[in-house]
Design brief:
Elements: H1 2-17, E1 21-30, E2 41-44, E3 49-52, E4 58-65, E5 67-74, E6 81-87, E7 94-98, E8 113-114, E9 122-125, H2 127-133, H3 172-175, E10 177-181, E11 184-185, E12 208-214, E13 228-234, E14 239-247, E15 251-261, E16 268-279, E17 287-302, E18 306-321, E19 332-336, E20 338-349, E21 357-378, E22 383-385, E23 392-395, E24 397-399, E25 402-428, E26 431-446, E27 450-453, E28 474-489, E29 492-506, E30 515-529, E31 532-539, H4 547-550, E32 554-560, E33 577-584
Parallel strand pairs: 1-7, 10-13
Antiparallel strand pairs: 1-4, 2-3, 2-5, 5-6, 8-9, 9-12, 10-11, 12-13, 14-15, 15-16, 16-17, 17-18, 18-19, 18-20, 19-21, 20-21, 21-25, 22-24, 23-33, 25-26, 25-27, 26-28, 28-29, 29-30, 30-31, 32-33
C-alpha cells in the first residue's frame, strides 16, 4: 500500500510543479471582414477562466495553465466558436474568429442539438432555430426536442414545459419541470390552482436568445425539481435596431429591440418591447389574450475581473372574454397576467490557488393573476344560502331566482431567491478537477386577497371567502458540494461527477415546519471519439409542495333542516335552519 501511495505521489507532484501558468493576450475578430468584435466573452472551460474583450476586440486572460487549452468565444449576433490553443512560453497574441450569425452562413441548425461538453444529457436550441420556429409561446420549442410534436402557435392555450411526461402536460411531470429565465425561477409553489407547470405565456418570445433543456441527472446546484430543467437566456449585448412583425389568422405580433453600447467602460444596455394579441375565433373575436412585454438588461465588466449583470422584465396583459352580443347573457371573464421579474448577478474571477471564482445572484418574481368572472344565474325559485365562516346554526338568506354574481380570485405570487457559489479549478497534467460549493435561499408566498364575491350575499350556498395572505410563506435553505474529474485514458476521455445537496424547509404551523433532505447525484461520461460518447447517471431530486397541496381548502358542509308546512296546504317558509360542520379535504 505504501509503495502504491509513493508511486502516486511521484506521478502527481511533478505534474503539479510543471503546471506553468502564463498570461495570454489576443484579439477577437469577425471571420471574413476581420473587424473587431467588442464585448465578446472569451471563456476557458477547462480552467474556469474568462475575459471580456474591449471595444477593439482585445482581451487578456491571466494565469492560463500551459498546454492545449480550449478557448470559447461568444457574443450576441455571432456564432459561438471554439478553438484549441497551445499555450506556451514565448507565444504571441492569439487571434480568435467568430462568423456573424445571419443568413449568409453555409448551414444553420434549426433543431435542438446535443450539448457535447455537458455532463448530464442536455440539448441546446439556438437563436436560428428559435427564429425558424416562429414561436409565440416559449413552450413551443418543445417541438424541436427529440420526439416533440409540431403545434400551431396558439396563445389561447397556456401550454407548459413537461419533460419526461410521455406526452402529457398535466400532473407531476409538468409540475416537476423547473423553468428559469436568466436565473429567475418561474415557480408555481405559491399557487392555489391545480399543480401544473410554470406558465411561459407571459414571456416575450422575440427576446429569447437560446434555450438549454436538461433531461438527465442535473447538477447539485439545482433543487426543487423532479423532471428536468429548462434554462432560457434572453438577448444581452450590442445589437442593431430590429423590428419584428408576425401574423397568422389568430395571432398578431410586433416587437422592437436594440442593444446600446454605452461607450468605453460604461457597459451595454439591451432593450426589447413586444405586443402580441391572440383571438380564439377570428370571426367572433370576443375571447382574446394580449401580452405587452418590456425587457431591459445591463451588463458591464469592472477591473477586468468583475462581471456585473442586472435585468428587469415586465408584462401587462391577460385573458379577456367579453359578452357576445348574439348571446345577450351579460357574462364575461377577465384574468390578469401581469408579471414583474428582476435579477442581478456578479461573477468575480479571483484566480487564486485555493479558489478560482465566486458567483452571487439574486432574483425576484412577482405575478398578478386577478381573475374576475361575471355569471348569469337563473333558478325556478328562490334558494336558501348561508355564508357562515364558523361552525354553528344559522338562518339562511334567500337568493333571488334571477341575478348576476361576480367572483374574484386574487392570486399574487411572490418568489425571491439568493445564491452564492465558489468554484475551484485545478489541473495535474492532463487531469482536470472542477470543484464547487454553494448555498441558496428561496422563499415562496402569496400576497393576494384570495377568493371572494363582489356582493357577498349573492355567493352560492356554503361559499365563504378565503384570503391567501393567511397561508404561511415557505422558506427553503440549501447547501451543496460537487466535484467533476476529467481523466484522459489514451485517445479517450473519462469524466466523473459526484455531488450532494442538503435542503431544509421551513413552513410555520404545518407538518413541513422543519423538514430536511439529502439528494446525492452522480454522472459519468466516457468519450470514445468525436462521434461516440456514452453517458450514465443516477441521482435523487425532490420537488417542494405547492400551496394547493400543503394548504387545501377546508370545506364547510351544510346540513339543512327540511322545510316546514302549516295547515292543510303546504307553504314553504322563507327561512331555513342550517348547521355547518368543518372538514378538511
Amino acid at each position: 500500500m505504501r509503495k502504491l501511495l509513493l508511486l502516486f505521489l511521484c506521478t502527481i507532484v511533478p505534474a503539479v510543479v510543471s503546471a506553468q501558468r502564463l498570461d495570454v493576450t489576443g484579439r477577437v475578430l469577425v471571420k471574413d471582414p476581420g473587424k473587431p468584435i467588442g464585448q465578446a466573452v472569451v471563456e476557458l472551460p477547462q480552467s474556469g477562466l474568462w475575459a471580456v474583450a474591449d471595444a477593439d476586440g482585445n482581451f487578456t486572460v491571466k494565469g492560463v495553465p500551459a498546454g492545449e487549452t480550449r478557448f470559447v468565444v461568444s457574443c450576441l449576433g455571432f456564432v459561438t466558436t471554439e478553438a484549441e490553443v497551445d499555450v506556451r512560453t514565448g507565444m504571441g497574441p492569439v487571434r480568435l474568429y467568430a462568423p456573424e450569425d445571419n443568413l449568409k452562413l453555409e448551414s444553420v441548425v434549426v433543431t435542438a442539438k446535443e450539448a457535447p461538453n455537458a455532463m448530464a444529457t442536455s440539448r441546446t436550441i439556438g437563436g436560428n432555430a428559435i427564429d425558424h420556429l416562429q414561436m409565440v409561446n416559449a413552450s413551443d420549442i418543445s417541438a424541436l426536442l427529440p420526439g416533440g410534436k409540431t403545434v400551431n402557435p396558439d396563445l389561447m392555450k397556456d401550454n407548459v414545459f413537461s419533460l419526461r411526461s410521455g406526452g402529457s402536460t398535466a400532473g407531476n411531470a409538468a409540475f416537476g419541470t423547473a423553468v428559469e429565465v436568466d436565473g429567475v425561477r418561474l415557480s408555481t409553489n405559491a399557487s392555489l390552482g391545480d399543480p401544473t407547470g410554470a406558465s411561459t405565456r407571459n414571456l416575450s418570445a422575440t427576446n429569447i436568445e437560446s434555450v438549454e433543456v436538461v433531461t438527465g441527472v442535473p447538477s447539485a446546484e439545482y433543487g426543487d425539481i423532479s423532471s428536468g430543467v429548462v434554462k432560457i437566456s434572453t438577448r444581452k449585448g450590442k445589437t442593431p435596431y430590429t423590428v419584428t412583425l408576425s401574423t397568422n389568422p389568430r395571432t398578431k405580433q410586433i416587437a422592437a429591440s436594440k442593444g446600446f453600447d454605452l461607450g468605453r467602460n460604461h457597459g451595454v444596455l439591451n432593450s426589447n418591447v413586444e405586443y402580441t394579441r391572440a383571438t380564439k375565433n377570428p370571426t367572433s373575436p370576443y375571447t382574446s389574450y394580449s401580452r405587452t412585454g418590456l425587457a431591459l438588461n445591463y451588463q458591464n465588466t469592472f477591473a477586468k475581473v468583475l462581471r456585473f449583470n442586472f435585468g428587469v422584465t415586465a408584462n401587462i396583459g391577460g385573458m379577456n372574454t367579453e359578452d357576445d352580443p348574439d348571446a345577450q347573457k351579460g357574462e364575461w371573464e377577465k384574468v390578469r397576467d401581469n408579471v414583474l421579474r428582476a435579477n442581478t448577478s456578479l461573477k468575480w474571477l479571483l484566480n487564486r490557488s485555493w479558489i478560482t471564482s465566486l458567483d452571487f445572484d439574486a432574483s425576484l418574481n412577482y405575478t398578478d393573476n386577478l381573475a374576475r368572472k361575471r355569471t348569469y344565474n337563473l333558478n325556478s325559485t328562490s334558494l336558501p344560502a348561508v355564508h357562515a365562516e364558523q361552525e354553528g346554526y344559522y338562518i339562511a338568506e334567500m337568493l333571488p331566482p334571477v341575478y348576476y354574481s361576480t367572483k374574484y380570485v386574487d392570486s399574487k405570487q411572490l418568489d425571491y431567491a439568493a445564491n452564492l457559489k465558489a468554484t475551484w479549478v485545478r489541473s495535474w497534467g492532463d487531469v482536470h478537477s472542477n470543484a464547487k460549493v454553494g448555498a441558496s435561499w428561496r422563499a415562496n408566498g402569496n400576497v393576494g386577497d384570495g377568493e371572494y364575491y363582489a356582493t357577498p350575499s349573492l355567493a352560492p350556498n356554503g361559499y365563504r371567502p378565503r384570503p391567501y395572505t393567511d397561508i404561511p410563506y415557505m422558506h427553503n435553505l440549501a447547501a451543496y458540494v460537487e466535484e467533476t474529474l476529467t481523466v484522459p485514458l489514451g485517445a479517450t476521455t473519462l469524466q466523473l461527477m459526484a455531488g450532494l445537496r442538503a435542503e431544509k424547509t421551513f413552513i410555520k404551523n404545518t407538518q413541513y415546519e422543519n423538514t430536511s433532505s439529502l439528494s446525492p447525484r452522480f454522472n459519468l461520461k466516457f468519450r470514445i471519439n468525436d462521434h461516440l460518447t456514452v453517458r450514465g447517471g443516477w441521482g435523487i431530486t425532490e420537488k417542494l409542495p405547492s400551496c394547493f397541496i400543503r394548504c387545501p381548502n377546508p370545506a364547510i358542509r351544510p346540513c339543512s333542516q327540511p322545510p316546514m308546512a302549516r295547515g292543510r296546504a303546504p307553504m314553504f317558509i322563507t327561512r331555513s335552519l342550517t348547521r355547518y360542520s368543518t372538514t378538511t379535504t
